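FIELD: query
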Amino acid sequence: MGVLRLVTMVYEPVKGFRDRMPREAAVVNYVCKTAEREFQNLGFLPIRTPHIEAIETLVSEETRDFGTSGEVFSFQDRGERNLGLRYDQTKGLIRAVARGLNTGEITLPVRLSQIGSVFRQGPVGASRQRGFIQADGDIFGVKEPYAEAEIIAAAYRALHTLEIDTEIRLNDIRLFQALFYYAAVEPEKQQKAITTMDKLPNTGERGVRGELVHKVGLTEYATDLIMGLLAAKDVEALRAYARDTVRLDRIRKTALERLPASNRKAAEGMRLGFPVDDIFSKLNDLQAMLRTYGVKAKIAPSLARGLDYYTGAIFEFFPPGGDKAIAGGGRYDTVMRLFGKREVIPATGLSLGVERIVDLLIARGVEIPPVTQAYLIPVMQDGGEEEKKRFYLRAIEIAEQLRKAGIATEVDFSGASVKSASRTASKRGVPYALYLGPEELEQGTISMKILSSHEQQKGLSMDVLIERLKHAKPATP
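FIELD: result
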């Protein structure tokens, strides 16, 4: 029993992580290359940052409430430095940009893209792992909503290329700031309220309402106002509501009166530095810009992301009928201050959830054709080691000629039978099997079989073989 348990431990990945075998890994690579290509088409430059950062980079007093900082895998190295695995790519990117601005390696404005693994020590579920891949695009130094439009367009085009339809939802985090101001929600409760509101698709209206009152500690009056926003469908009606400043002031006065006296001082000290109607004007401008790219997006007042992180527009991409976003991001103009920058450096970013996208494609039955186009099988008689060496060396020469011509070729060195080796090639999805037997070795030719149709072509010269393989068009997903 002990031996069996040991074998299970060895073969299974750690909880929250998973293996991607070759067929699935090919889909991962396809998604990553597609995202990378679309970012590059819009002028994004590549950047790479470490998987490990100083814990102060990942978790600080200013970033404690960003939503995932409590899920950092943290440890000490041999020098007793406190380190952590990155839980997203943004923190390391911001640090690297701050450093690049100091050294002169980066000048603003700049567009940067990065694809890599991130790690979160949180609960594990069907759509939630502890290790996963994100494809990020970020723009620094552009304060106008053109940055949001470019990033959304890049993500849209990547998903369109992957043949994934999405509903793009827009909002502005300042709408929640205004809501909390008029509902007199104390500052220390606001991020918890945002996190709770984000659970609406999973826990429903009743669950969110109960958690806002009993766990977050909001008044029934403030909760009613919040639930009203979450239920809002008519954006124009909501905008008209926002213009009625007399009514809003009356709501705030009532909300303050409903607060316990001990909590009232913090809420009274809150300030709102922008007109609420400006939020909807900016969102309408962004919608108009996106239409120039051929992208449709809807304003969704209930869309919520990190209050302490984002400073303006936020956006998420949802597949048809799905309640889990496969991409999302927003504007985060003040985060650079965490790394010693006194001035506000405008920044906008987006992450594509590669793993969720891959799972969608696999569920749809998408298969990526193998890179290997030809599988070369030496067909030897029982002639001993010298004959084997002669066949293998010739096979390598043929494979090298094909590779130099741009034809990915694998040589079968297993010594298996022709039938078994051909079955291996077919199982891997390789379109062509090449055979090097005694006759081909003697005549300097090669034989080929199209594995899908079993059509055979014998005695081909290398020039003819290369020409036929180069003009063959493997299936694309």
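FIELD: remark
Confidence is low (pLDDT under 50) at residues 62-67.
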